[in-house]
Design brief:
19% of the residues lie in helices and 29% in strands. The chain has seven helices and 28 strands. A six-stranded mixed beta sheet has the order 16-13-17-21-20-18, with helices on both faces. A five-stranded mixed beta sheet has the order 8-5-7-6-9, with no helix packed on it. A five-stranded mixed beta barrel has the order 22-25-24-26-28. Bound molecules: adenosine monophosphate (AMP) and magnesium ion.
Amino acid sequence: MLSVDAHLADCLAAIKPLPAREVPLLEAAGCLLAEDVVSAIDMPRFDNSSMDGYAVRAAELASAGPDSPVTLPVLGDIPAGHAEALVLEPGTALRIMTGAPLPAGADAVVPVEWTDAGTAQVLSRRAPAEGQYVRRSGEDVRAGETVIQVGARLSPRHIALLAAVGRDRVLVKPRPLVLVMPTGSELVPPGKTLGPGQIHDSNGYGLIAAARELGVDAEHGGVIDDNPESVTQMLAEAALRADLVITTGGVSAGAYDTVKEVLRKLGTVRFDKVAMQPGMPQGFGTIGDAGTPIFTLPGNPVSALVSFEIFVRPALLWLAGESAPRDFRTASAATGWTSPAGKRQFVRARLEDRGFGDLQVRPVGGQGSHLVADLAEATCLAVVPEEVTEVTAGDRLACLILDQRSRW
Ligand code: AMP
Ligand code: MG
């Protein structure tokens, strides 16, 4: 029997992080940037107005005040997007809109609010300072400047900046595509009526949601029935499309455990007993010409989700080139329970805060591997080490936080 740590190390050793890839801008949101992004343009690209108002020479309005208005003829309009280079004649004003290029000769903008808003001529009772309401070319970014450095996680603000400098594609560490393929002839998707002997596929949906919570792309690859031809064909196709494949079920000792049979021929998948509870039967390897990693998780819903947390989650982060340390809290056991000798036990539990960070961990309901309602109640997995066979109330345990967005 393999230890949990040895199995995880074997899996990670066989997985290569995905190479950087150029993707369309919007697909890059949330990814790690794999290049330094240099702006080819100044931003602002040209001197422009920060107000709707009038482009003027500040010196010509220096005497303007509440009792000494200055009036200038208005020789035209400059809307935003105006392409023609305009010159401000001495002794005149041009009506200008926010973001419109400042005409040559102008050195300030009088906001429309300070004036009588005239169109043929304009009267102002206030004098702008030189440079007032003018956005200077290059004050934000200079052409040739690095605006985002390699390794940044691209936020919506970064996406806006990339668009502003004109990038429609960008080199990133891509989000892996995971295909989740539950196996079992008893499985029916939620929303379909159950026939005799059938159950809804819950593993597929739970695992896709868990993978998506990590920020990777995950899709349902279809339920694989227990027939060797369809298993072979579906897995071969999945290996071509996906960066990582997850199956559930069909890997224990049952007579119809087809995945195991097919994978023995299709790739390098190894089936092991791992010293853990739940989740003992684990398979991992690579399939297809591209050597696509595949995890064959046990079919019991609890075992499948616990296996995801312990093995698949770190593997996906590694594939994505991310280093995300696990979120653990230490808590005292609220009650006692027994734990199998020689196995690491992952107990579905809830954390309770008794004030000032004094955390208590309490197992939820039953611990049978088929109990999905109890699993849904859990917020953490309390980890009982291999050598411990008896947990006593008050024992300190490491607790693996399950919900990324919850307080725990
Ligand atoms: P297996 O590993 O295929 O022997 O399955 C073990 C148990 O998990 C059986 O009770 C299956 O019906 C159940 N099971 C397998 N796959 C799923 C699934 N996708 N969703 C819910 N239960 C499943
Ligand atoms: Mg099965």
